[in-house]
Every structure is written in C-alpha cells, then in structure tokens.
Amino acid sequence: MESSEEDDDFPSIERIIPQSKVDSLYQSHTEKGIRKLCCELLDLKDAVENLCGNMQTKFLAFLRISEEAVEMEHELIELQKHISSQGILVQDLMTGLCRELEEWKQSNGDNHEPQQDPEISELQDPLPSERDDEKMIFLEHIDVLLAEHKVEEALEALDAEERNSPDLKGSGDTSLGEVSQYKCAFLKRKAMLEDQLVQIIEQPSVSVKEMKATLSALIKLGKGPLAHHLLLKSNKLRLQRSIEVLLPSCYVCPKTFSATLSKLVFSIISLTTKESASIFGDNPIYTNRIVQWAEWEIEYFVRLVKENAPSSETVSALRAASICVQASLNYCSMLESQGLKLSKLLLVLLRPYIEEVLELNFRRARRLLFDLVELDESLLVSPHFVSSLSAFGTSSESILADSGMRFMCIVEDILEQLTPLAITHFGGNILSRVSQLFDTYMDALIKALPSPSDDDNLTELKEVIPFRAETDSEQLAILGIAFTILDELLPNALMIIWKRQNESNEQKSGPTEDVPSPNTTTDLKDWRRHLQPSFDKLKDHFCRQYVLSFIYSREGKTRLNARIYLSEDGNDLYWDSDSLPSLPFQALFVKLQQLATVAGDVLLGKDKLQKILLARLTETVVMWLSDEQEFWGVFEDDSIPIQPVGLLQLILDMHFTVEIARFAGYPSRHVHQIASAIIARAIRTFSARGIDPQSELPEDEWFVETAKLAINKLLSAESESETYEVDEDHIMLPDEVVTDSDYSASSLSTVESFESFASASMGELDSPMFTDPEN
After folding, report:
1. Mean pLDDT of successive 10-residue segments in the chain (775 residues)?
2. Are 333 and 510 in contact, with CB atoms under 8 Å apart?
3. Residue 423 near residue 322 (C-beta atoms within 8 A)
4. How far is 389 from 24, CA to CA, in rounded Å?
5. Three-state secondary structure call for residue 314
6. Contact, 279 vs 219, CB < 8 A?
7. Which residues contact 166 (CB under 8 A, 6 or more apart)?
8. Are 465 and 444 a contacting pair, CB within 8 Å?
9. Sequential DSSP letters for 252-305
10. What pLDDT, on a 0 to 100 scale, did the predictor assign at position 188?
11. Three-class SS of residue 552?
12. CA nearest 560: which of 612, 627, 613, 614?
C-alpha cells in the first residue's frame, strides 16, 4: 500500500498522463478560482435574463389583468343597473297587472256605463307599463351620464324631468307606491350628482372657472347653502396653502412678514366677497355668512401675526407691528367699498398685542437709558442733538450731555419705527409712554443732584446713575439739558413724525373717522404741558437744595436766624442813616449774582431758563422763611425781648428781596406776594407783643428807596473788590459795602411801582403757588 501511494505522488516518466490530470495537479489555485467565478457569473447572467423576461411577462399580465378588472367593474355596474331595472320592471309589471285587474272588475260591474272601443282606449290612454318603461330609460340614461361624469348633461336632464314629470310634482293617476318609488330613485340620482359636484369642488387643482360652474350647478339642484359653504371652505384651504408657503419667510424678513401675510388674507377675503356676490347675488343670508367668515379669518390672521412675530421687546417687533397696522388697515379701507367694515374688529384684536410691544420696547428703552455700555451703532446720533446738547458737554459735563443724547437717540429710534396709521390709532398711548420715559429721565437727573435723599417725594430708582453733579456749573448743565430736551428736541422729534402722519392722511385717507388721533399742533402742546411738572420737579429740587445749602451751615446751624432781628443795641443790624439789609440777605444777593454769572456761561442763549431759575431761587428763600415755624416762634416767645428796629430790619430785608428780583429782570409777582405775607405776619406778631408799627415804621417808599440803594452799594463793592467771595460758614462782606452813601435809586433800571407791603392782607396772600410767572 505504501508503494502505490508513492507511485501516485511521483508517477514515472514512462507512463502517459492525460492533460486533464496534469491541469488538475499543477494549475494554480488562483486560476482555478477565476474559472469557477466566471462560470458562476455566466450562470448568474442567465438567471438575470430569465428573471427579466419573467418580470416583463408578469408585468404585462398584471396590466392586462388590471384592464380586465376595470372592464369587469364596469360590467358589474352595468349588470347591477340591469338587475335593478329588471327588478323595477317586474315590480311595475305586478303593480300594473293588479291595477288592470281592478279596473277590469270595475268595468264589468258598471253595466250602465257605455262600452268604449279598446283600440281607441289604448290610443287615448296608453298602458302604465309604457310610462314605466320611459321612467326606467330615463333613470338608466342618468346612470350612464353619472358614470361618465357628465354632470352638466345629467343636471339638465334631471332639471327637465323634474319640471315636466307629474309624478315628481305629486300629481297624476298613478298609485302612491309607484310615485314614491320613482321619486326615491330620482332623488337618489340627484344625490349622486350632488356628491360628484362636491368632489369636483374639493379637488385642489380645480380652476376658478370650473369651481364657479360647479357652484352654479349646486344652486340649480337647490343646494345654495351647501354651495356657499363649499366656496368658503375652498378659499380657506387656498389661503392656508399660501400661508404654509409664506411661513418660513417670517424668520428671514420679520419686519415685512406681517404686511405680506395681511395681503394674502385680505386678498382672499376680497376675492371671496366678489365671488359670492357674482354667484349668489345680494342675498342677506349669504352676505352675513361672508362677514362672519371674514371675521374668523381676521382672528386667524392676528393669531398668526402674534405667533410668528419677533421678540416683543425688540425694535424689529415694533416695526413689524406698525407695518402690520398700516397694511391691514389700508386693506380694510379697500374692503369697505365691498360692504365689509372690519377696521374696528381688527383694532380690537391688535390693540393688546401693539400695547404689549410698546410696553416692552419702552422698558428696554429705560434699561438702555441707564446702561453704561455704548448704544448700538445702528442708532445714529442726529446732528441736531449734537449741536443742541454739546454746549453742555465741556470738560466734566460731557457725560451729562451724553446722557441727553442717549435719551433722544432712544426716543427717536422708537418713533422712527412707527407708521402713519399706527400713530393715528396708538398715538395717545405712545405719547403717554414717552412722557413716562421723560419722567424717569428727570428722576435720574434729580438723583444726580446733591442731597437727593432730602426729596421725600422722589421715587427711588433701581438703576445706578452713572454721573453726579457737584459743582454749580454741572448742576446748571443738568437743568440746561433737561430744558433743551423739554422745550426743543423732544417736541421737534415728535412734530416731525406727526407731520409725516398728517401728510400720509392727506394723500391717502384711511378708516380713521371714529378714532381720535393726536395729529395736531394743539394736541402736542397739550402733551408738552403734561411734561412740564417733571421738569418743574427737577427745577424745584435744585432750588430747594441750593437754598438749603445757603441757609444751613455745614454744622447744621441756621444762618437765617430770627435772633439777628433781636439785638438790643442794633449793631448787628447795621441800622443807621445808610441802612442795609441784614448780612444773610446781602450774602444771598452776592450768591445769586455769582450763580447768574455761572448760568450766563453754562446756559448761554437760555435767557428764559436763567430768569426762571433765579426767580424760583428767590421764591424758595421767602417760602422757607414764611413756613419756618422755628423762625416765627422766636418772635412769639414772650420771654424773648423784641425791639421795633428788628421789625424795621425784617421789612427792609423783604423789600430788598423783592428789589433783587426786579433788578435782575425776572418775574417778581410771587416773590412780592410771599414777602407781603411775611411782612403782614411780622406786623401782627410785633403788635401782639405791644409794639405799635404805625409809630415806629417809615413810609413804604423809604423801604423801596433804601433797598434800591443797598443793591447799588453791593454792586459797587463787587466791582471794586477783586476777590468778592462769600464764606458760607461765616457770612463776611467787604468793608466798602457799608461806607458808600453816594448812590441813589435813580441809577437802577426803571421798575414798576407796586402796592404797599405793609397794607397787604394775609387773606389775599394765602398759599402762594410755585409756578412760572409771566410778566
């Protein structure tokens, strides 16, 4: 066995070996694999060809079977119709036979009636079976028309049959059962035609012409309400498809999305109204349905606007809302020519959204007002703002001017987003919110003034004020900025926007007859008067803290003390032939002069404001003196001795205060009234202590001339002294003030005479008001 195995592995040369054996023993495995793969590929190719052939054969067979199925379906329908007609025929035959039998019996029973020729009877009154055959033929004809979807021909045939057939009208000599059966079959075909018409209308690809024809067909069938409902439903679906295409653009063009959406919605409403009028006429029922449907669509429109609008606190949201109001109200005005008045409903639905956008935008404006970060580059500063406020921005006051520019930029940015119709319908709301923002800004400026804690009426601000005004020039700059914004910049900015609205209303009238709009100069003036109290609060705070800093020393002691009028020897009163006001009032005059000099530089060109401030400061001094109970308590204390010279000095001080106002050229009427009340009270107080004023006091003219002379002396001393200053803790005046007696009142500007202070009654001078007087 071993030798045979070796022979197989190593065959001898002499032995002849077949080629197949050699190939199987020595060819490489790779070649063998390739050959095997080729064979498999050839087999696979044959299988694929067989499969393709089988698929094509089976597909053709499938198509053939499908066609046969369709044909079979038609045949089944025809067979069903045939069976139905045969059944009706059999039933009619039975009914006819029964009727003929009854008639035959009746004819045999009535012998007195004349006999009639059967042939003539047949000619005059054909058998009922013939009429039944006509009905069956008609019904079959209708079935064919319906199967072929020839709705117009079917409608005409049904309409003609309904007009001409006595059976369908409920008359004739046929039995009740036969009539009801035929009528039921007729109504069934009519319902089938109605279903086909509804299917045509509900097709998305139906054309406008085809839809109108179909709706007219439904009206002929007596289905007017259904046709109108389908009209509204079809246009609703058309609108929804258009909106679905538009919705992605709300993120790309947020500001114009609402305008495009309003165009789609109101265009469909207009189209539907026109189609309803052309198809259904002026029927009030259909007109009311159109109005109700349009109101639903407007509610849907407003909901879409809210859902797809930008964030309500952004400027984009305000612009989008304004454009929405402008576009939608314009379309509403166009619809009014078609009898649709939708403006009021639209405004009712839009108002909460618009007010929310306005509220959040003005909240954002308030945050920006106190934000130390620079404003967005898109907010361009108007050159007019720069030229008007830059005068207050020198050196340390620059941040104050920047705050005013920031305020105006924020307001102008909001106003620029408004459209004419938005201003027309929401102008009052906008003006109110601008006023609130201005009030907030005035509160911030009050916080920037010294001693804000003394103002108990000031609402605490949560925002951090980025600036503080310490010097007189900085405080006056704050007043100048506030006055410029109030008197010039803010009214001008609003006037420009409101003029655009007026011009737009003149060019294109809108539905505004029922809505009042603040579009006149008178309305803006009224609004400006509403801003005045906020500025007055700032002005009063400045005057109050300024006067209090003058009256009270750093140690809290009162410089304007009643004891300066109680000196027994009168040395402190400077009472001689050249009497002068008391030292505190001389210092007041000097301090007002210094403030007027600073105001002339800081408030250059604001002469009106300068006079108002100086007048208010003078009023504040006499108001404090009038209301200070501790001051009057000294005179009313019986344990403290008083002298007539004290009353004389007090009256002279009051006259001097009034002459300061007159000399400076600012309104003095209120100062006069309050000073008169102080003099009257002093006279009563001293009289109650046993001093007779009539015997001690000179004439009123003497006080006036002495006060004028004192002003001249103080002015001369100021001009001659290089360093004329007031020490607030120790009131000191130069010696020259009390020596020069050569000046007369004639050197003063001519002033109007006024009533005697001493003769003023307290009843006429109660509760003097702090208002801006006019000469």
Report:
1. 45 54 59 83 87 84 85 83 76 76 73 45 48 74 78 78 70 49 80 83 81 84 86 90 86 84 93 89 88 93 91 91 93 90 93 94 88 54 62 60 86 91 90 92 88 50 65 88 89 84 61 46 76 91 89 78 69 56 88 88 84 88 89 87 87 91 80 91 88 79 89 78 48 37 32 31 31 36
2. yes
3. no
4. 108
5. coil
6. yes
7. 172
8. yes
9. TSHHHHHHHHHHHHHHHHHHHHHHHHHHHTT-HHHHHHHHHHHHHHHHHHHHHH
10. 83
11. strand
12. 627
- Spatial neighbors of 585 by CB under 8 A, at least 6 apart, are 653, 656, 657
Beta bridge partners of 552: 558
Considering the entire predicted model, what is its pTM?
A: 0.67
Residue type at 441 in one-letter notation: Y
Contact of 673 with 765, CB cutoff 8 Å: yes
Neighbours of 564 (CB within 10 A): 18
Cα–Cα nearest to 301, from 249, 251, 346: 346
- Distance CA(606)–CA(613), nearest Å, equals 11
For 667, how many CA atoms within 13 A lie in the half-sphere containing its CB? 15
pLDDT at 40: 87
583, 733 in Cβ contact below 8 A?
yes
In the block, residue with structure tokens 């809210």: 306
User: How far is CA 63 from each of CA 53, 54, 75, 505, rounded to the nearest angstrom?
Assistant: 15, 14, 18, 70
Give the pLDDT confidence score for residue 15 in this predicted structure: 52
- Asked whether the beta carbons of 158 and 193 are under 8 A apart, the reply is yes
HEC string of 324-364 equals HHHHHHHHHHHHHHHCCCCHHHHHHHHHHHHHHHHHHHHHH
Q: How many angstroms from the chain centroid is the CA of residue 261?
A: 17
Backbone angles phi, psi at 429, to 5 degrees: -65, -40
Rounded CA separation 491/705 (Å): 45
On whether the CB atoms of residues 489 and 384 are closer than 8 A, the answer is: yes
Instruction: Kindly list the distances between the CA atom of residue 735 and the CA atoms of 294, 516, 684, in Å, as whole numbers in the listed order.
Output: 90, 68, 35
Token pair for 476: 């006056």
Residue whose tokens read 């505004």 = 512
Query: What whole-number distance in Å separates Cα of residue 142 and Cα of residue 153?
Result: 9
- The structure tokens listed for 561 are 């003390």
d(CA 698, CA 708): 16
How long a stretch of residues is the chain?
A: 775
Which pLDDT belongs to residue 320? 92
Amino acid present at 260: T
111 phi and psi angles, rounded to 5 deg: -75, -25
Token look-up 């007031």 returns: 726
Residue 297 and residue 294: Cα distance in Å, rounded?
Answer: 5
Strand partners of residue 558: 552
Quote the DSSP letter at residue 681: H
DSSP notation for 408-469: HHHHHHHHHT--HHHHHHHHHHHHHHHHHHHHHHHHHHHHHSS-GGG-TTSPPPSSPPS---
The Cα 406–Cα 53 span in angstroms is: 84
